[in-house]
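Translate structure to sequence.
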């Protein structure tokens, strides 16, 4: 773990970045279920997770703050007619967390052919969007009169 104390002294407002770096270093690598993250357009993204064997009723998606959590739990194990010789399709539960950037919202989710698709969109508020400032459009300010102290 890295000590960020010297950086705290010379920076303002980056505490969330340092917290994300700490969390990234502390989390163990997860490999199940596999997923893709793709950029659809400049401000739209899609997370695709392979959730074979799970139905819409077995998966829950929660967006809280800047964290997206996807949890899969099988309601009940299906009855197998015969003896299972090999089980390669995982049916274990999972929980996967994604850290979303500021102003990224979850727009919806869909499940198709064992793949869970989560649509994301970055929507910057008007105040944060770049804008052109015209030159010469500043209103004239009146000079402030000063009085001499006696």
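Result:
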């Amino acid at each position: 773990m890295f000590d960020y104390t010297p950086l705290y002294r010379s920076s303002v407002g980056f505490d969330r970045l340092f917290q994300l770096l700490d969390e990234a270093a502390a989390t163990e690598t997860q490999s199940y279920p596999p997923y893709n993250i793709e950029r659809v357009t400049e401000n739209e993204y899609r997370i695709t997770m392979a959730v074979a064997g799970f139905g819409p009723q077995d998966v829950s998606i929660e967006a809280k703050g800047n964290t997206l959590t996807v949890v899969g739990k099988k309601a009940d194990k299906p009855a197998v007619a015969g003896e299972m010789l090999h089980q390669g399709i995982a049916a274990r539960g999972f929980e996967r967390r994604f850290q979303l950037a500021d102003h990224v919202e979850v727009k919806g989710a869909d499940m198709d052919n064992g793949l869970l698709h989560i649509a994301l969109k970055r929507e910057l508020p008007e105040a944060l969007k770049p804008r052109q400032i015209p030159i010469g459009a500043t209103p004239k300010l009146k000079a402030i009169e000063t009085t001499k102290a006696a």
